[in-house]
Design brief:
This protein is mostly beta strands. It has no helices and 23 strands. Strands 1, 2, 3, 4, 5, 6, 7, 8, 9, 10, 11, 12, 13 and 21 form a 14-stranded antiparallel sheet that branches. Strands 17-16-15-14-23-22-20-19-18 form a nine-stranded antiparallel sheet, with no helix packed on it.
Length: about 375
C-alpha cells in the first residue's frame, strides 16, 4: 500500500509508511492545538488524528465563547495517503517542521466556526516523558508526546463575530502525540469492567511567559503514586542572536488546588498554586488563575459520547457541527476541563493552558 511518503527516507520497520509498526487497533497519531487571546474572551481547542489500524482520520475544533460551546467535527476513511491531513473542511498544514503550522476550518455558512490561522513556535519542541500504563496484562497507554508554546496570527469567526488574530496577544500551546491509547468503538471490557482508563488526577499546564515557558505535568493516583510527572523551564528560541539557554529541570512539582466542586468528572478548580521546591537557584511558586474554560471532551471525540469517538468509523466522509449552552446543557459538561489561565511567577506574568481532570475519588481534595 504505497503512498507519497514512501518516497522519503522515513521508514522504521519493514512496512510501507501507511502501516504502523504494530497491529494494535489503538495505535494513533494526533495533533492538538489550543488558542486564546491572553484573556477570558474565548478559549479554543483543535485537533486532528489518524488511526491507521482502524482506517479512520478525524478532526475537530471546539470554542467556548460566552455561554456557548461550539463544535465543528469531521471524520473520513483514512485511505492510503497519510500525508493528506485534511478531513472535510478541517485541515492541518506543516509549513516548517517544529516551527510553523497552519490550521484551517473552511467557512461554511451554517457552521459556527471558521478560521485560517498560523502558529509560530516560541520555544523548541520539548519531548515529554513517555506514558506507559499496563493493566491485567494489556498495554492501555504507550505513547510519546512533544509540546511547544507559540503565537497565532490570521482570522477567526465564531458565530457572527470575527476576530483578527495577532501574535502580540493570541497565544497557545500544541502537542504531537503518537502510540497506543484507547480509541475507536468501545470494546467489551472483560476484566477491565468498572476500572478507569486513566486513574486519579491529571493536571497539565504549559505556561508561556515572555522569555520562557514552563511545562508541568502531574498524573497522581489517590494513594499518592505518580504515574507521570514533569517540570521544566524551556527558554524561547533565539530570535535576536543571543546565546541559547539550556532547558532547566525544576525537580518534583507540587500542587495546591482550590476545588469548588468535589465530584469526579465535574470537578472545578478556581485557583491553584504550583510549586517547584527543588528548582535550580531556589524554590519557585506559580500562582494560577483560570480565566475561562471549555469541557474539551464534549463533542470532540475524546471519549464521552457513544456516537462520536476518536477513531470511530463513521463512513467515507461525515461533517457535523453543534452548539450547546454551558448553562442549559450543564449536565453534559464533564470530563477533562481545559482552561486558559494567567500564571504569575514573581514579577513575570504569562498565559497558557491549565488542564485538569479527576477520574475517580481523590481524598486530598475531598473528591468523591
Amino acid at each position: 500500500m504505497l503512498s507519497p511518503m514512501d518516497d522519503y527516507p522515513l521508514h522504521q520497520v519493514a512496512e510501507t509508511i501507511r502501516h504502523a509498526g504494530t497491529s494494535d487497533r489503538n495505535f494513533y497519531d494526533r495533533y492538538y492545538f489550543n488558542m486564546h487571546a491572553s484573556g477570558d474572551e474565548l478559549f479554543m481547542v483543535m485537533g486532528m488524528g489518524q488511526y491507521p489500524n482502524l482506517g479512520v482520520q478525524d478532526a475537530f475544533a471546539v470554542v467556548r465563547r460566552g455561554t456557548k460551546h461550539h463544535v465543528v467535527r469531521a471524520s473520513r476513511e483514512l485511505g492510503n495517503d497519510r500525508m493528506d491531513t485534511s478531513v472535510g473542511p478541517l485541515r492541518v498544514e506543516v509549513l516548517e517542521g517544529l516551527k510553523k503550522l497552519r490550521f484551517i476550518v473552511e467557512d461554511m455558512a451554517d457552521h459556527p466556526i471558521a478560521m485560517d490561522v498560523t502558529w509560530d513556535a516560541a520555544i523548541p519542541a520539548f519531548e515529554e516523558p513517555r506514558q506507559y500504563i499496563r493493566r491485567h496484562g494489556r498495554v492501555l497507554f504507550d505513547s510519546l508526546r512533544f509540546a511547544q508554546t507559540g503565537n497565532w496570527s490570521g482570522q477567526l469567526r465564531v458565530g457572527d463575530e470575527t476576530f483578527d488574530v495577532t501574535p502580540d496577544k493570541w497565544k497557545g500551546s500544541r502537542d504531537r502525540s503518537w502510540g497506543i491509547r484507547p480509541v475507536g468503538e468501545t470494546e467489551p471490557p472483560g476484566i477491565h469492567a468498572g476500572s478507569h482508563i486513566m486513574e486519579g488526577m491529571w493536571n497539565y499546564a504549559p505556561m508561556q511567559f515572555d522569555d520562557y515557558s514552563i511545562i508541568y505535568i502531574c498524573n497522581e493516583h489517590n494513594n499518592g503514586h505518580r504515574e507521570l510527572e514533569e517540570a521544566v523551564r524551556v527558554y524561547n528560541a533565539v530570535a535576536g542572536g543571543g546565546p541559547d539557554r539550556p532547558t532547566e529541570w525544576l525537580g518534583r512539582p507540587e500542587h495546591e488546588h482550590n476545588v469548588v466542586n468535589k465530584q469526579a468528572y465535574t470537578t472545578f478548580i478556581d485557583r491553584s498554586v504550583i510549586r517547584f521546591p527543588d528548582a535550580p537557584g531556589g524554590a519557585l511558586e506559580v500562582q494560577v488563575e483560570p480565566l475561562t474554560h471549555v469541557w474539551v471532551m464534549v463533542g470532540t471525540g475524546y471519549g464521552l459520547e457513544p456516537d462520536w469517538k476518536h477513531g470511530m468509523y463513521k463512513g467515507p466522509l461525515v461533517i457535523e457541527h453543534l452548539t450547546l449552552d454551558m448553562q442549559a446543557d450543564k449536565d453534559r459538561m464533564l470530563g477533562l476541563c481545559d482552561n486558559v489561565a494567567r500564571f504569575t511567577l514573581g514579577d513575570d506574568v504569562g498565559y497558557g493552558l491549565f488542564e485538569y481532570g479527576f477520574f475517580g475519588p481523590f481524598d486530598r481534595y475531598g473528591i468523591t
